[in-house]
Specification:
The protein is an alpha/beta fold and 469 residues long. Among the domains are: 131 residues, Four Helix Bundle (Hemerythrin (Met), subunit A) (Up-down Bundle), CATH 1.20.120; 184 residues, Rossmann fold (3-Layer(aba) Sandwich). The chain is 42% helix and 10% strand. It has a seven-stranded mixed beta sheet, sandwiched between helices. The longest helix is centred in the middle third of the chain and has 32 residues. The protein is globular and about 115 Å long. The protein starts with 16 loop residues before the first helix and ends in a 5-residue tail after the last helix.
């Protein structure tokens, strides 16, 4: 009966293993010659030592793979889900991610570049979207620009009403400073109504840092805050911080809601009416009033003067990029006011010569009396001032900035996101120095309400403390 055996059959010559071992010994001796004659040969590694050596080499390869992967991620970050998948796969497939092998064959060789996928899959490194600000020169890199911030990336505590207002601001559906202020306060009102103080906290300590600040940060990300928004938010924060730590939540919320309602009534609605009334008093029968673009205070002034029975004409020089002057002309013609319309600054000189006064709407007024207004306003003011005409700025006191000064149009401004290309870009506002402004009409009662631009700080101090002479 035949049997199988792995060993050599009896009587067969010895296998040829010995010569092979001898040749290996010679090769080893040639590779590692002894330091001196008679030196002992290197002892063979045990199984445990071989296992430890293999483990150390594997750990070294993993470390090198990790370093290479981190360098690639730093150069072009991956989405969170895909980055997690790549990290998981790299644990068992260190050589497939383009890392340099740790063996002697990989020394001195650069990692192979990624090849385009032939299976239709997305590459492991996504190409970043083009930056809309990439064409802006570095000297203008500090000037902010509105952008549509993704609602999915907003802070989890941002209220839905604030999300909606932020998107409207980013798309310029709400662009006037007072309109933005009112929309913000109404959204904050809903935030306060839905707020509940967590256990172990107080409204005065928890509301501002954990609830109000995320709303403000999101709105600022959508579009830089206007001066009126900044002033109102400071007042709201100051009121919250004055609450005692033991103040009842319901009482504190009612006080905040009432303060917002009073602020909208006094500083926006009534202020608008008073400014229009004070400005309308300056218009005389037969005057030609020059204005630029469309501003709600100027429009209300003309309608108020018409209601008082005054007959006058309005000359409109439009902003060619905005076109708001066309809407103003239609509104005034419906009210029975004769209008002269010029689509751009090309008709500036003849319009200035026939005008009696110039009414300009302001976005903000700085502490040094400089006027921030839509781009092109400074040209109107300088031309009218040089021609000896009165230049009257219309502005509510909530738009005054009592801390900052401005002497140029680059320090506080915005880039028009709709007119930003690799060749050129447009600023939304310009700066008119106080010497070109005859007076400022506010809601503050000072005779006709017409005060020098340099006197805004005195107006604010007297408004806060009526006892000041």
């Amino acid at each position: 009966m035949a049997t199988e055996s792995n060993g050599a059959p009896s009587g067969a010559p010895a296998p040829a293993a010995a010569p092979v071992q001898a040749s290996q010994g010679k090769a080893s001796a040639a590779a590692n010659p002894p330091a001196a004659e008679g030196a002992a040969t290197t002892p063979k590694l045990t199984a445990a030592q071989l296992k430890a050596k293999a483990k150390a080499e594997k750990a070294a390869r993993r470390a090198q793979v990790k370093e290479t992967r981190e360098a690639v991620v730093a150069a072009a970050p991956l989405p969170s889900t895909q980055a997690g998948a790549d990290t998981k796969g790299a644990k068992g497939k260190g050589k497939q991610d383009g890392s340099q092998p740790s063996g002697p064959q990989g020394q001195g060789k650069a990692p192979r570049p990624h090849r385009p996928s032939m299976s239709g899959r997305r590459p492991s490194i996504l190409v970043a979207e083009k930056d809309v600000r990439s064409g802006i020169p570095e000297c203008f890199s500090h000037v902010p620009m509105a952008k549509r911030a993704s609602t999915s990336q907003a802070h989890k505590d941002v209220h839905s009403a604030v999300l909606a207002v932020g998107q409207q601001m980013a798309t310029f559906a709400i662009k006037d400073s007072i309109a933005r202020l009112e929309a913000t306060l109404l959204a904050f009102r809903k935030v306060i109504e839905s707020y509940e103080t967590p256990k172990g906290n107080s409204l005065s300590r928890h509301f501002v840092p954990h609830v109000l600040n995320p709303q403000i940060e999101y709105l600022t990300e959508c579009r830089p805050m206007c001066f009126a928004m900044g002033n109102a938010i400071r007042l709201l924060k100051g009121m919250v911080n004055k609450f005692d730590i033991d103040t009842d939540e319901t009482e504190a919320k009612e006080d905040l809601l009432e303060a917002i309602d009073v602020f909208i009534r006094d500083r926006i609605t009534l202020a608008e009416l008073i400014v229009a009334r004070n400005a309308a008093a300056i218009i005389n029968r037969g005057d030609v009033i020059l204005t630029y673009g469309r501003h709600r205070l100027v429009e209300k002034t003309f309608l108020e003067a018409k209601q008082r029975g005054k007959e006058f004409d309005v000359s409109i020089i439009d902003d060619p990029y905005d076109g708001g002057g066309q809407e103003l002309a239609k509104s005034l013609r419906r009210a029975g006011i004769r209008v002269f319309y010029s689509p751009n600054l090309g008709g500036l000189r003849p319009n200035v010569e026939r005008a009696a006064n110039v009414f300009l709407g302001a976005e903000a007024i700085f502490a040094n009396g400089s006027l921030q207004a839509p781009a092109g306003t400074a040209d109107i003011a300088m031309a009218a001032s040089n021609a000896g005409k009165q230049v009257i700025a219309l502005c509510e006191t909530i738009n005054f900035d009592r801390e900052r000064v401005s002497v140029d149009a680059l320090t506080y401004n915005e880039i028009d996101p709709e007119r930003n290309t690799a060749e050129s870009f447009r600023l939304l506002f310009d700066n008119t120095r106080d010497r070109f402004i005859t007076g400022v009409i506010t809601e503050f009662e000072t005779g006709t309400g017409n005060s020098p631009a340099q006197a805004i700080l005195a107006l604010l101090r007297k408004q806060e403390d009526p006892t000041i002479a």
